[in-house]
Amino acid sequence: MGLFSIFTKEIAIDLGTANTVILQNNQVVVDEPSIIAIDQKTKEVKAVGKKALMMHGKTPEGIRTIRPLRDGVIADFQSTELMLREFIKMTSNKGHFLPPALKMVICIPSGITEVEERAVRDSAEQAGAKDVRLIQEPMAAAIGIGIDVLAACGNMIIDIGGGTAEIAVISLGGITTFKSVKVAGDRFNSDIQEYMRKKHNIAIGEPTAEQIKINVGSAVEDLENPPADYEFYGRNLLTGVPTAVKVNYREVAQAIDRSIAQIETAVINALENTPPELSADIYKTGIYLAGGGSLLRGLDKRLAKKTTLDVHVAEDPLKAVARGTAISLKNFDKFPFLMK
Ligand SMILES: Nc1ncnc2c1ncn2[C@@H]1O[C@H](COP(=O)(O)OP(=O)(O)O)[C@@H](O)[C@H]1O
Ligand SMILES: [Mg+2]
Fold first, then answer.
1. Domain, as residue range, for 264
2. Ligand 1, residues 189, 206, 214, 216: which to mutate, most atoms within 8 A of Cβ?
3. Alpha helices in 2-95 (DSSP H)
4. In the structure, what pLDDT confidence band is assigned to residue 332 with cuts at 50, 70 and 90?
5. Are residues 10 and 100 in the same domain?
6. Atom 17 in ligand 1: residue holding the nearest Cα
7. CB of 144 closer than 6 A to ligand 1?
8. Which of 13, 17, 289 to mutate to test the pocket of ligand 1 (most atoms within 8 A of CB)?
9. What proportion of the chain, given as a percentage, has pLDDT over 70?
10. How many CA atoms are closer than 13 Å to the CA of 215, on its beta-carbon side?
């Protein structure tokens, strides 16, 4: 540890709509869902992250769970700030004999406005940050995947998170083509909820829909290695009684088909709007997928078929953005695209 690190603590934050990941000294020190539980009356923070998620959909009156970044926009400045502050508190001050100066790079969803950007920065400063840079999500994802973003070569990244799917073409350290749609993991969950209500007359909460997606989620109806059917519980809408239902991956593929098609359209649209020289590069390199949504079974194959390009899924896609943000922290003064 250098002398400097006694005075400065450096952290990289991936502030995602679904999950917040913080890296410190190349280690994941926070990996929590972006959710906070607040007492409505006293405004006191009851829980953040996993603890708050466990309360989601089960809170007594007076306590509310909030996902402050839900749709890729900051729905609620105050809860964003409270949440960010709690997460920063979870990072270590080990090795510092005084409260260290905080230096950080924060990755934000690209769709957020300047005002919201300001809010994130303010929250970070409120939480003790002295030096903050922001980075856009597709850029961080590209770096995390291992792409040389400064090279004169076009690369297409699709980052499918909780609230948004972001499609970007990156070349020479900049984003040349960008498209964001509010169709991602959360939408797949609500599609599954709607499908269960209409097809099976059964009401399920968001956490159950999420479990169905993770266990038997699929973007296609012809998987080579299909997962075993999944049993879940919900409330029968006709009898009002809790009921068990089995679901297979084909049903989930049907439930989310329209949403996947919307992402496909956005990808085609982004390809059409890509300058020809960069297009030629993408033809050779293919498309890179990151974000939790890229874990959906068969999504890579479906996109490959639609675009006729090679599609590569990032290694550990849920952490690609955080890795890229941490690499940017090491290049704090070198990467031109970090926003002061
Ligand atoms: N195995 C999986 N299959 C499909 N979706 C998944 C899987 N694992 C996580 N997800 C989804 O990925 C999304 C979170 O991805 P993430 O990249 O962390 O999002 P964000 O950057 O918006 O926080 C959630 O909607 C979650 O349900
Ligand atoms: Mg993300």
1. 148-183+258-315
2. 214
3. 4-7, 49-55, 77-89
4. very high
5. yes
6. 291
7. no
8. 17
9. 97
10. 15
Task: Let me know whether 175 and 284 are in one domain.
Answer: yes
Q: Are residues 282 and 152 in the same domain?
A: yes
pLDDT of residue 3: 53
Per-residue pLDDT reduced to its tens digit, 197-221? 999 999 999 999 999 999 999 999 9
What is the structure's pLDDT at 100? Answer: 77
**Co-location of 240 and 271 in the same domain:** no
Q: What is the pLDDT of residues 305-331, one digit of tens each?
A: 999 999 999 999 999 999 999 999 999
Long-range Cβ contacts of 301-306 (<8 Å, 24+ apart): 301/219, 301/220, 302/219, 302/220, 302/260, 302/264, 303/158, 303/264, 303/267, 306/264, 306/267, 306/268
Question: Which of 240, 255, 270 is the last residue in one of the domains?
Answer: 255
Q: What is the CATH number of the domain that holds 249?
A: 3.90.640.10
138 lines ligand 1 (CB under 6 A): no
Of all ligands present, the nearest one to the C-alpha of 140 is 2
Domain CATH code at residue 79: 3.30.420.40
Find the ligand nearest to 294 CA: 1
Q: pTM for the complete prediction?
A: 0.94
Q: Is the CB of 298 under 6 A from ligand 1?
A: no
Q: Is residue 31 part of a domain?
A: yes
Whether 335 maps to a domain, the answer reads: no
In sequence order, the 6+-apart residues with CB closer than 8 A to the CB of 52 are 33, 35, 36, 37, 46, 65
Q: Average of pLDDT values for 39-64?
A: 90
Taking alpha carbons only, the member of 247, 271, 130 closest to residue 192 is 247
* Residue from 19, 20, 252, 289 whose mutation best tests the ligand 1 pocket (most atoms within 8 A of CB): 19
